[in-house]
Design goal:
The protein contains 8 helices and no strands. With 163 residues, the chain is mostly helical. It has 2 domains: 93 residues, RNA polymerase sigma factor, region 2, helix turn helix motif (Rna Polymerase Sigma Factor, Chain: A); 70 residues, Orthogonal Bundle (Arc Repressor Mutant, subunit A). 22% of the residues are buried.
Amino acid sequence: MTSSPMNEKEFTRLIRQHSGIINKVSYFYATEQTPFDDLRQEIYINIWQGLSQYRGDSKISTWIYRVAVNSALMAIRSSRPRIETVTFDFALPDISSELDDAQRENLQTLYTLINRLEDIEKAIILLWLDELPYEEIAKTLDLKRNTVATKIHRIKEKLSNSL
């Protein structure tokens, strides 16, 4: 980011700006053992702690995706209790109020189907749904571009067959 450390106000602005990414990853990776709010909190903490390592080689949104997905995967794999150190409370917009019933139902069906995917497939399809180019998805998830293209094709087939 910058050579000086980010203050809390700047961090809050950064989190609000990228809350869609964080909430989406938290939603799709939340489990009974790792609830949505706990997972989102873990992502906030990891972003805060990792900001000093952000070199600017990619867009900040790409870096946040990577931190969020890695945080989610680590939280899922780890069964040890989380230590809550800091609480960030952000007001989140309710996008569901902007949708009609049919759109809401279609979105819920899509979320349900995506939730059934393997962890890496979830990460790939969420990035693709956010219209990131294959190269950016590959960089975010540390995969080869052709692997991403192949996986997206297979994920689309899997989702279509599930309908």
